[in-house]
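Changelog entry

Holo records now carry the ligand SMILES as an explicit input line rather than a separate metadata file. Below, a converted record for coenzyme A, shown in the new format.
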Amino acid sequence: MTDAVAAISDDGARLATEEVRDLSDLDMDDLISAAHDAIALDGGFGWLRPPAHSIMRQYWRGVLLIPERRLFVARLDDTICGSVQLHFSSAQNEAQRLVGRLSTFFIAPWARGRGLGSRLLVHAEATARESGLLALELNLRATQERARQTFEARGYKNWGINPHYARIEGRWVSGYSYSLSLIDGEGEDGGDGDGGGDSHGDGDGDDEGGGER
Ligand SMILES: CC(C)(COP(=O)(O)OP(=O)(O)OC[C@H]1O[C@@H](n2cnc3c(N)ncnc32)[C@H](O)[C@@H]1OP(=O)(O)O)[C@@H](O)C(=O)NCCC(=O)NCCS
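Structure line, unchanged by the conversion:
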């Protein structure tokens, strides 16, 4: 585990975020439980219903093995209660080498409203900057209202809506695409205006492709 950042909330709870490169059995169980609760309430990162514990364990083990992936977790009173992942482009994706992507952003329902979601983003953004990334992007379902508020409060700009983002219970759910420049003072329209032709490409070979983040 690296880079723990801690604070005390108004109600006296200990708040922390950290980057993890390995998970103890206890931490793994807590992460699985937190993800289960978040998916059960809101859906998330592709799942509509919480998968079996063993599938979820396999998923998180896989995340820790991906070289182009960094995993950050939030802790409330030392118990893991949420996460976000920072994706780097693979070597062949030269055009997007300096653009990172965020995924799997959630806080368990019982830990929300204490600023941990924002703290996770602060930590991931700081790591992205330290790693030389110049921008971050992400997609989410239009229905994920609090996540949208959280990103917008941190300056992420919604640049597009995909009406066919997800198919849930026989209906299309729109998806919102967000972007954040990590260059100090740069506006969000600082790109080359080509309409994002190669953005969100699936060509980075990661396990989620262009799917839900
Ligand atoms: C989005 C999410 C991670 C936020 O977690 P959180 O720890 O509650 O967030 P914070 O306490 O840091 O609050 C962040 C912002 O969310 C909004 N927010 C938080 N609690 C809120 C509430 N009760 N009502 C309305 N807005 C709220 C505010 O804009 C807040 O910013 P502020 O503190 O500057 O006012 C959490 O709600 C969640 O897991 N949602 C479901 C999963 C999801 O949608 N993930 C996105 C997929 S990428």
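Spot-checked after migration. The longest helix spans residues 25-42. Strands lie at 2-8, 14-20, 69-76, 79-87, 99-107, 135-141, 157-168, 171-181.
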